[in-house]
Specification:
The chain is of the alpha+beta class. The chain contains seven helices and 14 strands.
């Protein structure tokens, strides 16, 4: 099975930048999108009906902000837009597809750079999600989690770790949460297959950082440990442009 996750920084914008050709070329079984920046009613027919895919949206109440979408060639048994903490539901950050073989979480985690209040919100989101997902792991569920986590885990995951030690996205508390999350029963698919590879998934548009490859790896495909033996391929498609993020690829035998 082939899955792709991509923070598109605006689904209507990416539609004008080769999005449909990208889907036709890659032919993923499931495509997860973050930061749609649109409500479903604002989208045209072409974005709601892409080939054979069934599409689900979870949009923020605030227009032009946040939002996730999942295009799937598989039919889910159920689809949810919350992991049980209502205080986070208005920002349209979660889509959960429950298939027979596994559960898929498409999540746009909050960014904490804007203010202390947003950092606090991000950490509360992190902790609430970890509490939720631990219960699923304890039940032995098979889980894939993808999306923009908005934190680089280790120094290898960003071009300038020393300069960003006090910046949200590389704070000790944020990185410690990823430690705790992995210990709960998950595998960073890219790092599992590429332990020493330096590759990024996001670059600042304000400083033309992508041209200089001054980036961060803040987007992830995580899989539960009971799926690790089925992991086939994980990569970051850095040649694909159109957003300030690159798409992620996961191939897994399911």
């Amino acid at each position: 099975m082939k899955l792709i996750s991509w923070n598109v920084n605006g689904i209507r914008a990416i539609a004008r930048k080769g999005f449909f050709d990208f889907i036709k070329d890659e032919k993923p079984d499931i495509l997860c999108i973050q930061e749609t920046k649109a409500q479903e009613g604002q989208l045209g027919f072409d974005l709601k009906h892409v080939d054979e895919y069934k599409v689900s949206f979870h949009s923020a109440k605030r227009k032009g902000y946040s939002g996730v979408a999942t295009y799937s060639s598989k039919t889910a048994g159920s689809i949810e837009t919350s992991f049980g903490s209502k205080e986070f539901d208005d920002e349209g950050r979660v889509l959960i597809h429950k298939f027979k073989e596994f559960s898929l979480y498409n999540i746009y985690f909050p960014n904490g750079k804007a203010s202390k209040a947003r950092l606090d919100y991000k950490m509360k989101f992190y902790e609430a999600f970890l509490k939720h997902i631990k219960l699923k792991i304890q039940k032995g569920e098979k889980i894939i989690i993808c999306g923009d986590v908005n934190t680089a885990h280790h120094p290898i995951d960003l071009a300038r770790p020393k300069q960003n030690e006090k910046t949200s996205g590389f704070l000790p508390t944020e990185r410690a949460w990823i430690d705790d999350f992995l210990k709960a029963g998950f595998v960073d698919s890219f790092r599992a297959l590429h332990p020493k590879t330096t590759k990024y998934s996001w670059w600042s548009m304000r400083t033309r950082a992508r041209d200089r490859n001054v980036g961060w790896r803040i987007d992830y495909f995580y899989i539960s440990k009971n799926l690790k033996s089925r992991l086939k391929k994980a990569d970051i498609l850095t040649d694909v442009i159109g957003s300030d993020h690159a798409p992620l690829l996961l191939e897994i035998n399911l």
